[in-house]
Amino acid sequence: MKEMFFDIEVIMLNKNASLANGCVIAVGGFDGVHLGHRAMLSALTEEAKRQKKPAAVFSFALSDRPKGNTALLASEDEKRRLLAESGVDAVYIASFSQIKDMPAEDFVLRLLYKRFGAASVICGYDFRFGSGRKGDFLLIKSLLSDKGVSVVTPDAVTENGVPVSSTAIRALIGEGRIEDANKLLGRRFCFSAEVIKGRQLGRKLGFPTANQKYPSSLVSARFGVYAVVCRLSGKEYGGVANIGIKPTVDNCGEVLCEVYLFGYNGDCYGEEMKTELVSFIRPEQKFDSLDLLRAQVDSDKEAAKKLLKEYGYNEI
Predict the structure, then answer these.
(1) pLDDT: which is higher, 245 or 224
(2) pTM of this prediction?
(3) Long-range contacts made by residues 305-314, C-beta under 8 angstroms, separation at least 24?
(4) Does domain 189-310 have CATH number 2.60.40.780?
């Protein structure tokens, strides 16, 4: 169920929850819902249970993010699914362009306190908001403490002494360090897209592939070959995928993900497939002949099977 109030979209993830008497609310981008975000969401749900209030998140529309920060770690649907899995009852979505110039005091008093009925606010230690990014958690505390509203700022989640952040994860994915990115995400980096028809060259070479357009809104994964796990028609398959522009046979410039699924023999054109990147095998490269390409694909398949088993996936 969706409702629109003053350009704020309200998405009820839990149909049994009610926002009529306020909520405990976490504020932030939550792109990717990585380990740092999950620490905030854990604090959110614990506080919501303590106060017997619904747990809500206030965030921005992914299509309207700050300039220079548009390479996403998850689609809107995936983000909402992850929030729901974390126990969030409702999500408030606002347009960044409409909120960015709001005075910080108005953001706290008019939006968080009056509009959302915040009984407690959860935010990151580095959260900034309002015109000129002048607002922070200290301002929220100073404005709401006399109203009985607490402010919770969980400690930063770190990996090797460095705070987990969306920026760090984007860099790892772009470098092909997908295993490290997945550790910080707390899940496999993934995307969902329709299976489309290609030139069917893989079928002629003995390795038919399920082709997807790589979502342009997501952070660019390093071009190359990956061990993957795919979810298709309610089933899960291990596989080997190439993400790139097919330099040997096409080089059309369009970024595609071509997946050879282990143990799949059906026709999946037009179906939605979720592809999860497990491990990077090698960079994309151009081959001088199709025979060399075929030999390399055979090698990649074996490498992918070995890696998937190492990561605990044995259904291949």
Answers:
(1) 224
(2) 0.89
(3) 305/227, 305/238, 305/262, 307/227, 307/278, 307/279, 307/281, 308/227, 308/229, 308/238, 308/278, 308/279, 310/279, 311/227, 311/278, 311/279, 313/229, 313/238, 313/278
(4) no
